[in-house]
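Record format v2
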Amino acid sequence: MLRERIMDFLEHESDLLDSRRFEEWLALFDPDAWYWIPLSPDQKSWTDGPSHVFEARPVLAARVERLMAARMIPQSPPSRTSRIIGALRVETNDPIGVRCRFHVAEARVLHEPDDEAEQRLFAGEAKYGLREHGDSFRIAWKRVDLINSEAGLRGVSVLL
Amino acid sequence: MGVNAIDGLDVSQLIRKDAVNSRIYSDPAIFELEMERLFGRAWILVGHKSQVPHPGDYVTSRIGRTPVLIIRGEDGEIRVFYNRCTHRGARLCMMPSGSALRLVCPYHAWTYDTLGRLINVRLKEEYLEHLPYGDYGLRAVARVAQYRGFIFANKAPEGPGLLDFLGHMTTTIDDIVDRAPDDDVTVFPVPLRHRYRGNWKLTFENLNDTIHAGVAHAVIANAARNVLEGDVDAPKHPALHMMVANAKPVSFFQALDLVTAPNGHSYFGGHMGANYQPEVGDVYFQRLAAARGDARAREILAVDRHINLIYPGSTWQGRYQTVRLVHPLRVDLTEVVTFVCRLKGAPEGTFENALIYCNVASSALSSITTDDLEIYEAEQRLSSSLEDTWLPISRGMGAQRGQASDRELHAGTSEAYIRNQYRAWSAAMAVA
């Protein structure tokens, strides 16, 4: 059943991110794919005003290579994340368009006075364009709408 | 004890020509004094006229940490008021922007017109003669002035005018507006914001620092270079070139001119060699040349400044049509609000290039900005825990390259711009 296969795929994606297997995560994206975190849920296209992130796969590849680097400043020490996805809706079948809700908790232990308060929660809706690939899928595009997207955010280095 | 003394400490004792005391970043009393004497008297960029095109349109902004409201009145004039009801001091406009011919306080429905006049209060008969309406209009910010559509406000009723304050830096604003074939820009109404738990001055000290780029941003520059070399499809993505530009050799930055101007302003020439040409370059040039003449169009596009700092409130990048407001919210909390400008009459591709730059350079999720934000927060924690540390600002000291009118030219790797900022800071902080 399509819905079940998609949920399985998205849970696999979440697991790759929480396990810090970022290169395998990147490999889920097709060469022409894009990854987008808009500034406002009203944006229809990345040209519709500024975005937090709008990256074609080659730019996303640089982001991933940076995340894996030992001397990456805002991930020294690295964050741990734990995410839950749910409320999956398959909106279209051909091409496959889906959306789901997510919560991503991030902790980064700096041994500073604010350590405990530093645990952050990112929440919102993720939308995907998927393409059939063998018995699984590839991501054609991914859009992440944070519920606090217009807020002044402190640096976010984890992948959403 | 001088008038600039707080807690028995003379502020002038915290600044030397070659170093600053880290207490200036962490002491709440110094922050209070900055709000009064620096942000209370400087001309601060609050917005752009295109945010309020019609009578009744308003947007909220800040002067320093103080919330203000920019509104176009029914008479067409743009005014700046404190965003605070004169009754109990509640926030008047709750939304970041909107349009209304009457501003009604959400607390007791005190009502103002678009010129800020109090026109109605709830239960007015019970005030009898004890509420002179004329005394309770919205409190206006003392002075408001525009330069080519950008709105500046000043809390102090007296002092130098906007043009005196900007001086040579009017050319920084020209560098954006001149690029528009129709001689005007609009700002995209929703700004991108990032913040950090650190002092506002850390941003101003970072943005003309060409030397940190090759160190703090080395990882993303290296990653972007690897992608560019390994993927034939990659070079068409301007973001990768912008990232790689951080790793230019020191000699490249040394050759650039750093320009410092009175009042703490500065910029450096060269846009870090990021080889940016919009795909629409030809059409854009034709339109600019049609509007301004071929020679003038070339002259406008040849202006090559990277980050312009209009101290202490805003930073400007003409080439990428980006303007940032720096809002000091607390001694250890700062918000940076980034607006992207659309050049009127230019093809849409010029705006798209600016959007990409905004992603790369101003987003809280940027692979570059996150390096800076992490460092600012670490600097702040250490400034709070090591009270009597002197931090040197002496790179390039005594090596001024030239003088042009009231501007100094230095090597692009000099910290002269920081010394220039503290000259302005010290002068402002010394005046009671």
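Residues 272-276 of chain B have pLDDT under 50 and may be disordered.
The first helix of chain B runs from residue 23 to 26.
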